[in-house]
Design a protein that fits this description.
Distance between the termini: 11 Å
Strand order of the largest sheet: 10-25-26-27-21-22-11
Bound molecules: adenosine-5'-triphosphate, magnesium ion
Shape: elongated
Structural class: alpha/beta
Strand content: 15-25%
Radius of gyration: 31 Å
């Protein structure tokens, strides 16, 4: 497991501070966050977002949002919109919104220039043939038979590719660099491919050729004036090519520089849009925002706050070695945050009726603090009466002395925020199941009064029968049953945790009635409140809630198994 420690300046901040001291780029700091709009953002992206936007914020720079939309097969405006929503929700502000597709004409012109300068050629081999000729890191590759075709022919064919005269996959444009270079990325990388099957989400049918990542990313950084182009470690091997392409056309001394940090991987989940899309498409989860998904919208629906997610990223920090982060740390972070803020309420998951035989009258209102000992955080009203629901497990007909909760002739037990009671007996149905528990209460023992100080060995939760509401609770657990599903052989879908969702109908205290409406939507995002259901865990109201039906999602259990 990756070491987690507090740090002062991360290594990228150190580089930025040194650049500023040396007066590089006239003290200008410009970063970008470059998602491909082919899926929803996940928590791995948040690590990149916190870096890209964080550097700009900290050093008075600007971070632009750039959609790396060079593959129309997988991209969609649905993703463009959700990405913007999620970044704003996380609390970051971008300078401009750019699209790699804004540069298609410029990049095309640049490709023509490369061809004219003898630096690019049209290859008619198949992808398999090209791959076969790549060689190995220790063995030079083989030159394509089309490598030395005349410039005019290359120009004509590339234009034919763009004109839609050539079928997808029949030709590519390759950079003519060095088939023997020890860096395999220099062995005549593909610059352009043909895609005619799908319209582009912004440029429609205008283009039939699309630039590859390596030919688009560095150029886009250069066009925009990016100073620090920060990405993840798998791009280290691309960096020389990033520099090479820019060097071929740059008309000034300015250069964007690429820096790399370790990707975020978390146990018991996957961090790949491709796999997430598969889970969504095959209905193995309820959608991108399924509360078990590591997506930003999934975590939000699970009850994670933007603050807690950012705090988590802050805790794990940035290094240059790949590793794996314990899911327990993420859960620990939200728990610590909600502990301070989530109002407490009662909900009974497995109810049995409790009748207080000596309770006379209509009932009363009990005022309880939202969080015990924090009067500044407000109070709520709980209805109390003769008939209540308690957890079935809080009563035992025949208990030994180690059972501190209700049992006939047993100990005194406090009803949370209310009175002390003592069980007297119970009633059963023909199958022997307990249907009602009977008890007497002590009218002088009410919490908040003098008698309320009397101690009992146990306190139990309750809700009042008439005022309580039925609520659906969705008990979520980890999505995968094994620690690192990406490292296992075989089909990752078979590693899904079969118990990742359990639905329970509970009796919730009437004060939650105020949550029974469709949550308000602000900037496309449902505003949902957080609660601690006493003894059960942290929960958030789910957007499926209506006037007639309350749905609560479990964000995290109360038990913290995170060990530093
Ligand atoms: P995926 O493999 O899930 O499709 P990606 O890297 O292709 O992810 P992009 O949309 O291209 O996704 O990523 C945008 C930015 O987010 C990139 O700079 C990328 O390095 C960064 N990023 C993606 N995944 C992670 C991760 N797990 N940890 C940190 N940064 C990430
Ligand atoms: Mg990508």
């Amino acid at each position: 497991m990756e070491e987690v420690q507090e740090k002062s300046l991360n290594f990228i901040e150190q580089i930025v501070e040194k650049d500023l001291q040396e007066g590089k780029n006239d003290g200008r700091i410009q970063t970008r966050f470059p998602p491909e709009p082919n899926g929803y953002l996940h928590i791995g992206h948040v690590k990149a977002i916190c870096m890209d936007f964080g550097i700009a914020e900290k050093y008075n720079g600007v971070c632009n949002l750039r959609f790396d939309d060079t593959n129309p097969v997988k991209e969609d405006t649905e993703y463009v919109d959700s990405i913007q929503q999620d970044i704003a929700w996380l609390g970051f502000r971008w300078g401009n919104v750019y699209y790699a597709s804004d540069y298609f004409q410029k990049l095309y012109d640049l490709a023509i220039r490369f061809i004219k300068e003898g630096k690019a050629y049209v290859d008619e081999q198949s992808a398999e043939q090209i791959a076969e000729q790549k060689g190995t890191p220790t063995e030079a590759g083989k030159e394509s038979p089309f490598r030395n075709r005349p410039i005019d022919e290359n120009l004509r064919l590339f234009q034919a590719m763009q004109n839609g005269e050539i079928e997808d996959g029949k030709m590519v444009l390759r950079a003519k660099i060095d088939m023997a270079n020890p860096n395999m990325h220099f062995r005549d990388p593909i610059m352009y491919r043909i895609i005619t099957t799908h319209p582009h989400h912004r440029t429609g049918r205008r283009w039939n050729v699309y630039p590859m990542y390596d030919f688009a990313h560095g150029q886009s950084d250069y066009f925009e004036g990016v100073t620090h182009s920060i990405c993840t470690l798998e791009f280290v091997v691309h960096r020389p090519l990033y520099d090479y392409f820019i060097d071929q056309f740059a008309d000034s001394d300015y250069r964007p520089h690429q820096y790399e940090f370790n990707r975020l991987n978390i146990t018991y989940t996957v961090m790949s849009k491709r796999k997430m899309l598969q889970l969504v498409k095959e209905g193995l989860v309820a959608g991108w925002d399924d509360p078990r998904m590591p997506t930003v919208c999934g975590l939000r629906r699970r009850g994670y706050t933007a603050e807690a997610i950012r705090e988590f990223i802050n805790k794990i920090g940035y290094t240059k070695v790949e590793g794996m982060i314990d899911l327990g740390l993420l859960e620990h972070t939200i728990r610590e945050s909600l502990k301070e803020t989530a109002p407490r309420v009662c909900a009974i998951f497995d109810p049995v009726k409790l009748v207080l035989t000596n309770y006379e009258g209509e009932g009363e209102t009990i005022v309880a603090e939202n969080i015990d000992g924090h009067s500044e955080l407000g109070t709520r009203e709980m209805q109390f009466a003769r008939e209540l629901y308690i957890e079935r497990g809080d009563f035992l007909e025949n208990a030994d002395k180690n059972f501190f909760r209700l049992s006939p002739g047993g100990r005194e037990v406090r009803l949370k925020s209310a009175y002390i009671i003592q069980a007297t007996g119970c009633e059963k149905d023909e199958n022997g199941n307990i249907t009602t528990v009977y008890a007497t209460y002590d009218p002088t023992s009410k919490s908040g009064t003098e008698g309320g100080n009397r101690k009992t060995k146990a306190t139990i939760n309750w809700v009042e029968c008439k005022s309580c509401i039925d609520a659906e609770v969705r008990l979520y657990d980890r999505l995968f049953a094994c620690e690192n599903p990406s490292a296992e052989e075989g089909d990752f879908r078979e590693l899904l945790n079969p118990d990742s969702l359990r639905v329970v109908n509970c009796k919730a205290e009437g004060s939650l009635r105020k949550e029974m409406h469709q949550p308000e939507i602000v900037n496309g995002i449902a505003q949902c409140n957080h609660y601690q259901l006493l003894k059960q865990g942290y929960f958030v109201v789910d957007p499926d809630t209506t006037e007639n039906h309350l749905v609560l999602n479990r964000t995290a259990s109360l038990k913290d198994n995170w060990q530093k």
